[in-house]
Amino acid sequence: MPTISFCSTKGGSGKTTSCAVLALELARSGWNIKVMDTDPKNWLTSWALLKPLPKNLQVYAVPQDQLTDAAESLALQSDFLLIDVEGSDDASLIDAVLVSDFVVSPCSSSRMDALASVQVLKQVRQKSRMLKRPILSNVLMTKTAPGAIEVVLGFRPVCSLVKMDQGFSSGC
Ligand SMILES: Nc1ncnc2c1ncn2[C@@H]1O[C@H](COP(=O)(O)OP(=O)(O)OP(=O)(O)O)[C@@H](O)[C@H]1O
Ligand SMILES: [Mg+2]
């Protein structure tokens, strides 16, 4: 079933928070949700222990070297599999992209976050071409205006890679 990963090469852009919010919203809508926490700091796993989660939402701490196998297995057991990825450009980001149907790249109103999202979107396009299958991707604006999460839920484009590239090169 669809696998959605939250990726940025930059730390602190809102990956874990966005993943938790979407997981809860989808679970409250009745879907069977599994979340893979692949960040060695295990923030999502800690969050899941704070208070009881809906019964149809489970969070798994997954070592990065087991990401691919775990994703394959958990996707079959869920309506949506969500993957929280560490904020860096190491191999786990690539592994997450390769197993995803949709890659969300959270981005605050910071130039560094935005450049990191461009890197992710480029990786997704490249891997999608390599695998010869569509991998959707989009930027989710975080720490901006209320309602930004609707972009994820509606899978609506926020801005194109081309526009973002143009914006950054002109110093926006
Ligand atoms: N949409 C948002 N609005 C306001 N604050 C947010 C939002 N998303 C995240 N934050 C805050 O930003 C901080 C970093 O968020 P988060 O831990 O989700 O980022 P991250 O990308 O997962 O970081 P890391 O790369 O370290 O894993 C947290 O304090 C969180 O509460
Ligand atoms: Mg995180």
Please, could you describe this protein's structure?
It is a single chain. The chain is of the alpha/beta class and 172 residues long. The chain has a single domain, classed as Rossmann fold, CATH 3.40.50.300. Helix content is 44%, strand content 18%. It contains seven helices and six strands. It has a six-stranded parallel beta sheet, sandwiched between helices. Helix 5 links the parallel strand 5 and strand 6. It is globular, with a radius of gyration of 15 Å. Bound molecules: adenosine-5'-triphosphate and magnesium ion (MG). Magnesium ion binds next to helix 1. This is ParA-like protein. InterPro entries: CobQ/CobB/MinD/ParA_Nub-bd_dom (IPR002586), DNA_Partitioning_ATPase (IPR050678), P-loop_NTPase (IPR027417). It comes from Shimia thalassica.
In short:
The protein is α/β, with parallel strands linked by helices. Helices cover 44% and strands 18% of the residues.
